[in-house]
Specification:
This protein is an alpha+beta fold and about 100 residues long. It has a domain of about 60 residues: Ybab, Chain: A (2-Layer Sandwich). The chain contains three helices and three strands, in the order αβββαα. Strands 1-2-3 form a three-stranded antiparallel beta sheet. α1 runs antiparallel to α3. The radius of gyration is 20 Å and the shape is rod-shaped.
Length: about 100
C-alpha cells in the first residue's frame, strides 16, 4: 500500500531527534553588547555558559546601563541560537525524504 512504513519513519524521527539533541549541546554562540563591554556565551539549549563584564563598566557606577547591556548580550545570544537551530532543523527535515506526506 504505497510503501508507507510507519516503523521506518519513527526510527528516522528518533535518530533525527537524537542528532538534534547532540547538536544543541555542541552549538555554542557568543554575543556582546556595548562594544564588547558585556559578552554572553550560550549553548544550543539556551543555557548561559558564561557572562563577562568589562571591569571598567562596573567602575562607572551606572547600574541601569550595565543591566541593559547584560540583557542585550543575553538576548542576542538567544537569537543567534534560534537561527542556528532553525537552520539545523530545516536541514534535518529536508533530509527525511517524506515526499508528499
Amino acid at each position: 500500500m504505497g510503501g508507507f512504513n510507519l516503523q521506518e519513519l519513527m526510527s528516522k524521527a528518533k535518530l533525527q531527534y537524537e542528532t538534534l539533541q547532540k547538536k544543541m549541546q555542541e552549538t555554542v554562540v557568543e554575543a556582546s553588547s556595548g562594544g564588547g563591554t558585556v559578552t554572553a556565551k550560550m549553548d544550543g539549549r539556551k543555557q548561559l555558559l558564561s557572562l563577562r563584564i568589562d571591569p571598567e563598566a562596573v567602575k562607572s557606577g551606572d547600574v541601569e546601563m550595565l543591566e541593559d547591556l547584560v540583557l542585550a548580550a543575553v538576548n542576542e545570544a538567544a537569537r543567534k541560537i534560534d537561527g542556528a537551530m532553525q537552520s539545523t532543523v530545516g536541514g534535518m527535515l529536508g533530509g527525511m525524504g517524506m515526499g508528499g506526506v
